[in-house]
Amino acid sequence: MRSHYGGEGIPTRIAVRYVVFAILSTLANFAVQAAVVKIYPSQSLVPSMLAGTAAGFGLKYFLDKRWIFFDRYESHGDELLKIVLYGLFSVVTTIIFWGFEIVFWTVWRTDLAKYTGGAIGLAIGYISKFALDRKFVFKLEGVTD
């Protein structure tokens, strides 16, 4: 698995791009959640969270792979391994996201609180995820941090 950069610091343009992509992924997540709430208003919390998370995952993987880590397709097996690792790390960071979203919704029971908690959880999760993805998913062969 090769990447554009390895052990050196993160270039500013990459950090800015990562933040922009995190925001885009968050907006996609929230837009899908809002759509699910309109479709299933009485049972909206869990279905909206699952659908929003799936939308955010797909968009973020594509953007990270192409524009953050400059990762190229090498083989089916290599790509599958990347997706599995990316997915596993996404589960960890999604627990952070969902935890904040659920706690905020449970305490205040408003959409604003739910999305505020979600935004905080996503921000913490994305920071953690970048470090994990850089080290384990889209790593440069032979380079360690």
Overview of this protein structure:
The chain is mainly alpha-helical and 145 residues long. The protein has one domain. The protein is built from 4 helices and no strands. The longest helix is centred in the middle third of the chain and has 33 residues. The model has no long low-confidence stretch (mean pLDDT 88).
Distinctive features:
145 residues; 4 helices; globular
Major sheet details:
none
Taking all Cα atoms into account, the compactness measure Rg is 16 Å
Distance between the termini: 15 Å
> Spans with pLDDT under 50 lasting ≥5 residues?
none
What percent of residues adopt helix (DSSP H or I)?
over 70%
Strand content: under 5%
Number of strands: 0
Domain GtrA/DPMS transmembrane: 17-138
Subcellular location: Membrane
Protein name: GtrA family protein
Transmembrane segments: 18-39, 45-63, 83-106, 112-132
